[in-house]
Amino acid sequence: MTPLIAGPYRRVREVWRRIRGWRRISFTSGGLVFTVGALAIGFAAVNTGNNLLYLLLGGMLGFIAVSGWLSEQAIRGLVVTRRLPRGVTVGQELRIGYTVRSRHRTLPSFAVEIAEGGLPGRAFLPFVPAGGSTRARSLNTFVRRGVYPLEAVTLSTSFPFGLFRKERDLTLPGEIVVWPRSVRPVTALPTVPGEGVAEGLAVPGMLGHRGEYRSLRSYRPGDDPRDIHWRSSARLRDPVVREYERDGSECRWIYLDVRHEPGDAAEAAIEVAAALAARAVAENHPFGLKAGEAVVPRGEGPGHLERVLDLLARVDFSPDASGPDRALAGDGCVLVSVAGVPGFGTQIVVGISSRPEELLPATRGEGAA
Questions:
Q1: How far is it, in rounded angstroms, from Cα 231 to Cα 212?
Q2: Integer Cα distance of 316 and 262 in angstroms
Q3: DSSP 3-state of 147
């Protein structure tokens, strides 16, 4: 297509996309039969001049007009707000919440469906009061980790008679972050002894449960009961715990080697890295993650685990990616890879069995397993 034609063609296509996104209408099976019947009666009325057929034709056409007007009012003037969780794990149900508010002052909306482009789940709203709001949710499940962009929601209804289905798109950008699974059986990560292999990435003075005393703070769920300061708790009538500084070298580092073709083996390596991070959180140890050029600094707790899972959801594998930094090789860093890196140190090499659905458990040692 020449540039002189391509420019106007793109503009026409964009205008058509906006018009189609504004309103779309399609026949239901019952509506198609009803419309064909109306055309047949109209043809018979013209050929015979029978007044009764003309009256019947007028009633059917009026029925179609009322159906179109009511369905238009059902999806017009609705404002949608979407609520998304921070992330969802592969295989778990994702609940997308919607709050729908009607700007109509007199007419309520009935039988409205909300759909997301590319997602099978739909939310159904049986009734939206005039000038009021209501809530609904849809359920979806993802089988692959990653980031799924959302552009718009589609409102649709076949109210009141089910003859036509009318749709309308509302621009509502967002994204769904699907985390990898973190339940694979793995062994514990070694800690960094003294000045560790991740020396350039560690941050000294991190808060922990054992070490030099720092201060008192309010009790939080998950705190060790041995750290409760009973005298202060009795005086303040609220649980108070001692807070300590953790040695800056006491850290566990996970290095994910992304030099591999995307596929089942790469996804298994990501699940192993996620499982190592989850185990470090369960054991209340600080840890950090390096995947290619991306780094999540050391930290601890469920919030830090979510940051690591967010990064793992976005990791891309490529044979041309940079290799592991051998300066990090040592007792405090575990390399997770598909093919293994000779001489790196502690490694977890992930393999795939003859049956693709059965991922082999991670193995420790040097070289490929």
A1: 20
A2: 8
A3: strand
